[in-house]
Amino acid sequence: MNQRSTLFDSVKGIAIFGIMFIHLGSWLLKPEEGSTFATLTTAGLLGVELTFIVNAYFLAKHFDKYKYEKLEGWLYITKSFLKIIPIYWLALIVYWLDLKISVGSCPLDYLNILSHFLFLNALNPQWWIDFMGGSGYFGIIALMWIIFPLYMKVAKNLAIALFFAVAVIFATSHVEDLVIQINEDFKLYKSHDVNVWIWYIKRGLDCYAIGIVLYYLSNLKLRIFETHRNIKQLLIYVVLSYIAYKCATKGGAFDGVRFSILSCVIIVLAFNEKITIIDNPILVFLGRNITELFVLHVILYYIFVDHHKILVPGAFAFFILFGLSLLLAPFLRKAISIPLGNFLCNRYSLFLSKIVYKK
Questions:
Q1: What is the DSSP letter of 32?
Q2: CA distances from 4 to 7, 9, 269, 270, 289 (A)
């Protein structure tokens, strides 16, 4: 596998570690508000943004490669959906069955549940995370994959992509405040539901625009950095200082978008000079099993802690669920995700050959 693929697996590994840390840390360890540990678990939200950026990078790479063959871009997105479906649907079914066993009934209507199976839950603040909490993430991913071709139609080169990313970030900031204010005035949904929902929508819109910038940056030779090593070191110190400042101030208004931009700088620099701290087998392992790890740690929490109370929240439960996720993820990937995902993709390609390409 080439260096870039390994690098991005490492970045995805960092992302899923952050996501699991914030979920299991906040659910099981229940850190005191304002404590340093609470700040660290909150910082794990950056893992969500990193996954958005990496997803956008690969989408941009594919769309740019087939920019004169529009159907290929949509084909790539469709196949990405199909590869997620087996493990995601399995998680939803397991969650639903376990809820029926533990509670005796499912408190949600069938339209709500159906929206999760069809990846439409992100369209409604009330639906998007109330059926298996982690499903909200997949809803946002699906929404962004539908919007992404429009992004690429606008951001045709690096200069436009930079301007577009800045414009999106400023626009979504105002829209986020407006949506929250409208909900407060008219009491349409619960405040918490809307606040979290619009937070994820904004990060999705912002980070997918940043991911396009990352793609164009990665195609530059950046020869100036090859001859001026001090510039590289300076940029890395800027990033580390920024993180340290935010942690020292107990999180505060943790600017995830700004951090994501700085993270992009580090990733781009890594293309020209290997950064061994990022490129390592443990992170690569996490990154290649990112979907399975995401689904597993959420499902295991509901089964062992929330529904059946087998484990009591605490450090022991934290390490047990973290460890079980790491052990089971490769098995699920090889036994379910890869074979069933490939089967669906092959059937879909065969369908297109007969209907679209008329072969």
A1: P
A2: 5, 9, 12, 9, 17
Q: Which residues of 62-74 are buried (b: 16+ CB within 10 A; e: fewer)?
A: bbbeeeeeeeebe
CA 271 from chain center: how many Å? 22
d(C-alpha 219, C-alpha 206), whole Å: 21
* 164/318 Cα distance (integer angstroms): 41
**For residue 290, what pLDDT is reported?**
93
Residues 6+ apart with CB under 8 A from 140: 52, 122, 128, 200, 201, 204
H or E element in which residue 149 lies: helix 135-154
Give the Cα separation of 229 and 211 in Å (integer).
25
Whose tokens are 């443990």? That residue is 282
Q: Smallest Cα–Cα separation from 119: which of 155, 151, 82, 152?
A: 82
| Lowest mean pLDDT segment, chosen from 184-193, 323-332, 337-346 | 184-193
pTM value surpassing 0.90: no
SS3 221: coil
Q: What is the dihedral of CA 71, 77, 83, 89, to 10 degrees?
A: -120
pLDDT given for residue 256 in this prediction? 53
Strands (E), 48-122: none
